[in-house]
Amino acid sequence: GQNIDQPTEMTATEGAIVQINCTYQTSGFNGLFWYQQHAGEAPTFLSYNVLDGLEEKGRFSSFLSRSKGYSYLLLKELQMKDSASYLCAVRDAGGSYIPTFGRGTSLIVHP
Amino acid sequence: ETGVTQTPRHLVMGMTNKKSLKCEQHLGHNAMYWYKQSAKKPLELMFVYSLEERVENNSVPSRFSPECPNSSHLFLHLHTLQPEDSALYLCASSQDSSSGDEQFFGPGTRLTVL
Fold it and tell me: Would an 8 Å CB–CB cutoff place A29 in contact with chain B?
């Protein structure tokens, strides 16, 4: 089985930087996804990490440390539209390639 | 536009009703999924279809019955539901179910069971 942990809620100020952490315990590891979900909308893909290190994509970056079972999503130059839920999902090394999702972190960006 | 559509967007039903949720993907994907999303809980995988064959069923009660007539369409038939089944039901698709490609989600159906 898998255990995925994220903070329930975070708040930040427009223009700031925020880091959303995700820790996981799995029987094996075969990739970690981050999705963004605005209220009442579909989750949308943000990033995928399978090797250690930082992947940068515009204002968003995702980091992975497989030895620590740890990832973070870094959001820079926060905008009001970044207020959303951020979902961490982990794929284990078992037969199924389907990721298991964490509870999500609700990010509220204040002016 | 994500390429995955779901209807209806909102549904209110009594415990004795029978209704169906519909999902359609326009992405040419081979795998489709049903998820349940409840408040304060992780996304729960319900069913997975690959090339119209069910490949995974996560111990979902029989009052939920999936149907995949072709690789573009997925249905979830509902009957004699319980109030605790009220949730957001999300459909997703991916290129296939075995490669771990990113999933594309529909907007969901908000279901309320009275």
Answer: no
Contact A27, A76 (CB under 8 A): no
B41 vs A48, A100, A103: nearest CB: A103
* Amino acid, single-letter form, for residue A108: I
Instruction: Map tokens 């809980």 to a residue.
Output: B41
For tokens 């809620």, name the residue: A9
Q: Could you read off the pLDDT of B65-93 as tens digits, one per residue?
A: 999 999 999 999 999 999 999 999 999 99
CA dist., res. B52 & res. B50, Å (int): 5
Give me the amino acid identity at A50: V
**Residue of chain B minimizing CA distance to A50:** B100
Q: What are phi and psi of A81, to 5 degrees?
A: -70, -10
**For residue B45, which residues of chain A lie inside 8 Å, CB to CB?**
98, 100
Using CA of residue B95, residue B101, residue B102, residue B107, what is the dihedral sign? positive
CA B106 – CA B80 distance, rounded (Å): 25
Token pair of B93 as six digits = 């698709």
Structure tokens at A41: 């909308």
